[in-house]
Amino acid sequence: MLPWLNSDRFPLYLAPMAGVTDVTFRGLCKDLGADVVVTEFVSAEGILQRDDRTRHYTDFEDGQRPLGVQLFGADGVRMGEAARKIIDWKQPDFIDINFGCPVNKVVSKNGGSSLLKNCPMLAEVAREVAKAVPIPVTAKMRIGWDAQSINAVEVAKILEDCGIQAITVHGRTRAQGYTGQADWEVIGQVADAVKIPVIGNGDIASGMDVEVRRAQTNVRGIMIGRAAMANPWVFQEAKQYLETGVHATPATVEQRFAFMRKHCELAIARSNRGGEFEIVRSMRSRLMGYTRSIPGGKFLRGRFGQIGSLMELDDILAEYQRQSHRFHSRPEPDEDVPA
Ligand SMILES: Cc1cc2nc3c(=O)[nH]c(=O)nc-3n(C[C@H](O)[C@H](O)[C@H](O)COP(=O)(O)O)c2cc1C
């Protein structure tokens, strides 16, 4: 049912990231080697209320397949209805249920990772959604609510019994947020405990990371999130490393600049929510993210903090190139860049 997880394949997924993995970024990562992509999470209630903005989050192009739409909610029947509605609009390859979101707004309504504390409700959500739709349903979860209640193996078995066809495990608890390190030992335990494919997620940033985690565990694929925000080439770099054992040459400054421009241009062309200024302004933190491994990145981040047009982007990049002799050959520490 999920052909990209068949025996000899080992897909690299682009992680769902709210505010990041929109239709434009998904397409760009697909071009750079991401095998499977997932939309950012959308509220089942938003879908049922035919909220245009929510619907916009589920938008995708056929070239992005295989693609999953990720739903969150606390009522399995309503989520099943929302999933059917999405399928009526445009049939994704799978529906993914979010059991990992740590943010209070979601958790306080019993959505996301809060369901890890309530296994009967989690089972009900999974069962109802799986029953409601004719396409595969997968789930993404954290390893537990906090360090005292790590229950990923138990939850994974429940999900398998409820008809979920693959599970992505982010190796952190809800309490950790994005701090500390992902616990790949627990991810490995989950992969050993269920028959359905498990995709491992957390702190993967290179082909070597993929290789190590693949060797250590029985995961059937890897999902990459934050590393792709800074370095969307990570997918093709990882594939090259896995195939040849040779580390890929990192994208050059010129390639990064061309990518930044392309990302802004596509975002402007696709936007139905504002003109060039609004879109470029909304891209500021994304542009800053792309400077993480560039010498003189700090200079660029300072400029990107004010940017509002493509012309300014060109001017900043030209200024950077004129002044490139000033910059060290190594990137500076980048604590000022939002993760
Ligand atoms: C900005 C941001 C937004 C995220 N939004 C979602 C989301 O909508 N759904 C989800 O399941 N996980 C979301 N996540 C979690 C990621 O999918 C992923 O599990 C996490 O970043 C760990 O993987 P990484 O170490 O490769 O980044 C988000 C993470 C970030 C940084």
TrEMBL record:
Q: Which CDD domains match?
A: DUS_like_FMN
Q: Which SUPFAM superfamilies match?
A: FMN-linked oxidoreductases
Tell me which domain of life the UniProt entry assigns to the organism this sequence originates from.
Bacteria
Enzyme Commission code(s) on record:
1.3.1.-
Recorded hits in InterPro entries, A to Z, give:
Aldolase_TIM, DUS-like_FMN-bd, DUS_fam, DusB-like, tRNA-dHydroUridine_Synthase_C, tRNA_hU_synthase_CS
Q: Which Pfam family, giving just one, matches this sequence?
A: Dus
The DUS-like FMN-binding domain extends over 14-313
Q: Which reaction does it catalyse?
A: a 5,6-dihydrouridine in tRNA + NADP(+) = a uridine in tRNA + NADPH + H(+); a 5,6-dihydrouridine in tRNA + NAD(+) = a uridine in tRNA + NADH + H(+)
Cofactor section: FMN
Positions binding FMN in this chain are: 16-18, 70, 140, 170, 225-226
Q: Which GO terms describe its molecular function?
A: flavin adenine dinucleotide binding; tRNA binding; tRNA dihydrouridine synthase activity
Arranged from A to Z, the UniProt key words for this protein are: Flavoprotein, FMN, NADP, Nucleotide-binding, Oxidoreductase, RNA-binding, tRNA processing, tRNA-binding
On whether tRNA-binding is a keyword of this UniProt record, the answer is: yes
- Active site per the UniProt annotation: 101 (proton donor)
* Physiological role: Catalyzes the synthesis of 5,6-dihydrouridine (D), a modified base found in the D-loop of most tRNAs, via the reduction of the C5-C6 double bond in target uridines.
Q: Which family does it belong to?
A: Belongs to the dus family.
Output this protein's name: tRNA-dihydrouridine synthase
Q: Which organism is it from?
A: Prosthecobacter fusiformis
